[in-house]
Design brief:
This protein is mainly beta. It is built from 1 helix and 12 strands; from the N terminus they run αββββββββββββ. It has a single domain, classed as Rieske [2Fe-2S] iron-sulphur domain (Rieske Iron-sulfur Protein, 3-layer Sandwich), CATH 2.102.10. The longest helix is centred in the N-terminal third of the chain and has 6 residues.
């Protein structure tokens, strides 16, 4: 996938796109209804195509960050709140900062990302998922 960096900055520094990548996710979480009318989370090994991603300008010489736009908890599409300057999971209320670090909610880890580099002014994204760092759950 290629995208010019000035376009990302001109769009406000954070852009969600459907990347034309086949990405294998060994930890794909999704919600499944139970017979009691509740939901449970199941995990499978899936190939995602296209892959929804957030591209975040890091305002420096380094490459922008590219995050999967899918929550590592329920699998819902993550939104960006310009007002709060946070990524939000509309399904469970989890929040991450602009760098993808977990802040609040039931999500088990930071946002997942894809490797990226800048070559000749273009953004090159690899379809290998780098899973977010697991957060420590408080022990009662």
């Amino acid at each position: 996938m290629v995208a010019p960096q000035p376009w990302i900055r001109d769009a406000g520094g954070i852009v969600r796109i459907a990347a034309p990548l086949h990405t294998r996710d060994e930890r794909y979480n999704y919600s499944v209804p139970t017979s009691e009318g509740r939901f449970t989370v199941e995990t499978s090994d899936e190939v995602l195509f296209p892959t929804m991603v957030w591209i975040v300008d890091t305002s420096g010489d380094s490459a922008p960050a590219v995050f999967l736009a899918r929550s590592p908890h329920w699998g819902c599409l993550i939104d960006w709140s310009k007002e709060r300057q946070r990524f939000l999971d509309p399904c469970d209320g989890s929040r991450w900062d602009r760098t993808g670090h977990f802040e609040e909610g039931p999500a088990p880890r930071d946002m997942d990302r894809l490797p990226v580099e800048v070559r000749d002014g273009m953004l090159w994204v690899t379809n290998e998922i780098i899973y977010g760092q697991s957060r420590a759950f408080d022990n009662p």
